[in-house]
């Protein structure tokens, strides 16, 4: 069985492989995380359209789907690592959702950056990965490996003049700044303003995790897929 077929059999909705040379200058934790690896595998699972379309009233339901999706993704990544190791190569899984205490709301490496390099989509004005199939309505996990897999190629950003996510942000954390591939986060996104509101949601017993989802809900790419 090919590795992509294996990932889909485990429940992945999207799968891609990136050449990590695109990301050698990208920040990681720890430094040098990519050393010894040549490929980045990214898998994604889709969140229910009805959950997004019903926001903000369905935020508690979104929180639960978010948690379950992360658990599924971590299991898929774990099994992909075993798939690779049994074939004599090295691999390490990157959790779907892990905020590092000293990482300024960042993680080991960006799944979005790997997915963009793999050609699964582009980085939108909401700083999320936008896929043609599902818009931004997915969660992702990654695997770093030295297995010589065929890679995809980055695709051009296709947000155009749309500013739906910027105009809909409930804390005005997004800025309409032109960029080509992957911008500096601080240039387009006030992470502290967003995180403060997410912490409020996380403290709500009905929600319990840091989710909002409005910028995902309004993206035309995701809504187009939901209507089809």
Structural summary, described in words:
The protein has one domain (3-227). With 228 residues, the chain is α+β, with helices and mostly antiparallel strands. It has helices at 3-9, 49-53, 59-85, 111-118, 164-168, 185-188, 191-203, 214-217, 220-227; strands at 14-19, 39-46, 91-94, 121-123, 129-131, 138-145. It is 36% helix and 14% strand. Strands 1-2-6-3 form a 4-stranded antiparallel sheet. A two-stranded antiparallel ribbon has the order 4-5. A hairpin with a 5-residue loop joins strand 4 (121-123) and strand 5 (129-131).
Give a quick precis of the structure.
The chain has 228 residues and is α+β, with helices and mostly antiparallel strands. The chain contains nine helices and six strands, in the order H-E-E-H-H-E-H-E-E-E-H-H-H-H-H.
């Amino acid at each position: 069985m090919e590795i992509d077929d294996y990932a889909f059999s485990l429940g992945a909705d999207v799968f891609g492989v990136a050449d990590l040379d695109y990301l050698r200058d990208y920040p990681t934790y720890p430094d040098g995380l990519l050393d010894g690896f040549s490929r980045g595998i990214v898998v994604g699972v889709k969140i229910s359209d009805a959950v997004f379309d019903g926001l903000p009233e369905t935020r508690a339901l979104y929180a639960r789907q978010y948690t379950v999706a992360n658990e599924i993704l971590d299991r898929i990544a774990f099994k992909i690592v075993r798939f690779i190791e049994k074939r004599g190569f090295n691999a390490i899984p990157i959790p779907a959702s892990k905020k590092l205490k000293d990482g300024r709301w960042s993680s080991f490496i960006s799944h979005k950056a790997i997915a963009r390099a793999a050609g699964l989509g582009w980085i939108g004005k909401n700083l999320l990965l936008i896929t043609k199939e599902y818009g931004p309505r997915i969660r992702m996990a990654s695997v770093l490996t030295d297995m010589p897999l065929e890679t995809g190629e980055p695709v051009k950003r296709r947000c155009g003049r749309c500013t739906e996510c910027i105009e809909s942000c409930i804390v005005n954390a997004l800025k309409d700044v032109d960029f080509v591939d992957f911008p500096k986060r601080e240039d387009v996104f006030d992470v502290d303003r967003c995180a403060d509101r997410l912490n409020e949601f996380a403290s709500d017993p009905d929600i319990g995790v840091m989710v909002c989802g409005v910028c995902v809900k309004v993206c035309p790419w995701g809504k187009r897929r939901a209507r089809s």
